[in-house]
């Protein structure tokens, strides 16, 4: 393991005083922009953990868990935090909660968390570009767990789901209902979860022997606006080219799709069946109610806390079969999802029709 980099090392390499480095860590305004940028760059290059945090960890005095989340406006965050809070409630630890907002550097926020010297470990929801920094911290002994990472699988303990299998289940549900021409509204290409959900969609079509039509794949942003844009695009297609169903890669986009479809005169599910992904609370209250894949957000929060606290007393790896002292990958917990069937996929309508037909045949 590398020797720990100190604040004196950063000051020497940046050609500034220790007081200036401290002001950068605490985001004081009385530091020139070019100086701030140079100090932060050297911290990043050196994998710097502020000495106050390191001392707090070494002494074992901290009973605080640092939690870094995306903006609270993201609909998946509150349920994850509910699981985090309830798991912490049964321990001797407390939460120190931080949220990233527009214009704030996640790396700067992490540096501020550590500079306080209070937290003994770090839980990060959707770390994204912060992952390299977290890897540096983990290599220096800071217990780190991530939830729902959007990039390549990090070499960090993590909690999430199997997006590919879940998307396969969603698409196969539509196929089993008799739909053959199935579209897909995917998330941003740079997000691993969007890539995997697309792969699950393709695999389901292949396994069912259905042709893949690239004209039925639409690019989205995980925001409602791209769902509305997709509905408009589908409505402009000739009737003979329209899909019978669509799998949408998250519920936010599905809400936009349902709203625009109604305005455009597309009946859901009579004209087009819809399945989403996430099962956030609003999914049960839109009209028609949304069939979707339920992510276990609450369980993600609970499991992440339990894993993180276990790392405070043991290694952040799991054994590899047949490995003797070699590389051991970090623990990755994958939680199961489930399909929640509601009105938008047409299954309930089909079930009622079958019941009616059965009743008439008995008379």
TrEMBL record:
The keyword Transcription applies. Residues 5-59 form the HTH lacI-type domain. Pfam families: LacI, Peripla_BP_3. GO terms for molecular function: DNA-binding transcription factor activity; transcription cis-regulatory region binding. Gene3D superfamilies: 3.40.50.2300, lambda repressor-like DNA-binding domains (1.10.260.40). Residues 4-35 form the HTH cro/C1-type domain. Keywords: DNA-binding, Transcription, Transcription regulation. This is LacI family transcriptional regulator. The gene is lacI_3.
């Amino acid at each position: 393991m590398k020797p720990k980099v100190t604040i004196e090392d950063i000051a020497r390499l940046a050609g500034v005083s220790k007081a200036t480095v401290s002001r950068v860590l605490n985001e004081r305004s009385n530091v020139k922009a070019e100086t701030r940028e140079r100090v932060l760059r050297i911290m990043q290059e050196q994998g710097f953990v502020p000495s106050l945090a390191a001392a707090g960890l070494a002494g074992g005095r901290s009973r605080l868990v640092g939690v870094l989340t995306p903006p609270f406006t993201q609909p998946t965050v509150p349920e994850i935090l509910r699981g985090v809070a309830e798991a912490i409630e049964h321990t001797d630890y407390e939460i120190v909660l931080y949220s990233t907002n527009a214009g704030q550097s996640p790396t700067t926020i992490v540096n501020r968390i550590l500079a306080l010297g209070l937290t003994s470990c770090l839980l990060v929801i959707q770390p994204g570009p912060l992952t390299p920094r977290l890897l540096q911290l983990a290599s220096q002994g800071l217990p780190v767990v991530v939830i729902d990472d959007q990039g390549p699988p990090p070499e960090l303990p993590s909690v999430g789901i199997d997006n590919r299998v879940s998307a396969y289940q969603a698409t196969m549900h539509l196929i089993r209902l008799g739909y053959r021409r199935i579209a897909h509204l995917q998330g941003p290409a740079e997000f691993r979860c969007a890539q995997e959900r697309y792969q699950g969609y393709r695999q389901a079509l292949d396994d069912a022997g259905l042709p893949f039509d690239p004209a039925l794949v639409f690019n989205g942003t995980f925001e409602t606006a791209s769902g509305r844009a997709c509905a408009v695009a589908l409505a402009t297609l000739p009737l003979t080219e329209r899909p019978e169903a669509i799998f949408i890669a998250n519920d936010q986009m599905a809400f936009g799709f349902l709203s625009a479809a109604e305005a455009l005169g597309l009946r859901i599910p009579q004209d087009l069946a819809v399945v989403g992904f996430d099962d956030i609370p609003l999914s049960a209250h839109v009209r028609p109610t949304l069939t979707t894949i339920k992510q276990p957000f609450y369980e993600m929060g609970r499991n992440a806390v339990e894993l993180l606290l276990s790392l405070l007393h043991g290694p952040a790896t799991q054994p590899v079969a047949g490995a003797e002292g070699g590389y051991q990958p970090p623990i990755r917990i994958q939680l199961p999802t489930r399909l929640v069937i509601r009105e938008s996929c047409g299954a309930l309508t089909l079930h009622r029709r079958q019941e009616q037909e059965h009743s008439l045949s008995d008379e």
